[in-house]
Amino acid sequence: MTSWVLNLSSSRKTNESEQTHVAGDFEALTISLRSYIYTTMDIVIDSNVIFSGLYSSKGASRLVLQDIRMNLLSPVLTVSLYEEYADVIRRIPLRLGDKDSEIFLNFLCRHGKLQEVFFLWRPFLVDPKDDLVLEAAVASGCQTILTHNKRHFKGVEKFGKEAMTPKEYIERKTK
């Protein structure tokens, strides 16, 4: 399960010039990352994106998880969404065990923002579980919802929200 973790360490021995080169690269990476500190984007993520990102080591959903790890994205979490994520990551074929599930959920909590919901918009969307996603977006003021099922989010524009796929997010990010 830990394959989604970005490994910055190396187990092989390095000579002094390699260490200097690595140190220089790390410094450049640190400077580059500092520019993103104030540009972290709050985003609400549908559970199908979480599932896809963990299931496949390639693709836009995996890149979304990497952006969370790099603090480019901050997932908005509600208690209901957290429970939905916990349920999804234990499904077949992922079947994450308790330890791996806890590691991943802690990862989301560390990088995410807890949002209380004081109102319910249900039912607004066709799928009741998608209403949980919309509630989080409305309560947090977040404008973007990441999902693989955009058709399930028809009408969210009324709330000033935009549903996009992980692929669309990556394409916009790289422009």
SS-based structural class? alpha/beta
What does the overall shape look like? Answer: globular
CATH level 1 class label: Alpha Beta
- The CATH topology turns out to be Rossmann fold
**Topology as H/E string?**
HEHHEHHEHEEH
In CATH, what is the homologous superfamily? 5'-nuclease
Question: Which consecutive residue ranges, at least 5 long each, have pLDDT under 50?
Answer: 1-24
Number of strands: 5
Could you characterize what this model shows?
The chain has 175 residues and is an alpha/beta fold. It has one domain (39-173): 5'-nuclease (Rossmann fold). It contains 7 helices and 5 strands. It has helices at residues 16-34, 47-55, 60-69, 79-88, 98-111, 128-140, 166-173; strands at 41-45, 73-77, 113-114, 144-146, 162-164. Strands 3-2-1-4-5 form a 5-stranded parallel β-sheet, sandwiched between helices. Helix 2 (47-55) packs parallel to helix 4 and helix 3 (60-69) crosses helix 7 (166-173). The relative contact order is 0.15. Mean pLDDT is 83; it is low at 1-24.
Please tag this protein with its features.
globular; 47% helix; alpha/beta; 175 residues; single chain; Rossmann fold; 5 strands; disordered N terminus
Q: TL;DR of this structure?
A:
The protein has 175 residues and is of the alpha/beta class.
Write the layout of secondary structure elements.
Blueprint: H1 16-34, E1 41-45, H2 47-55, H3 60-69, E2 73-77, H4 79-88, H5 98-111, E3 113-114, H6 128-140, E4 144-146, E5 162-164, H7 166-173
Parallel strand pairs: 1-2, 1-4, 2-3, 4-5
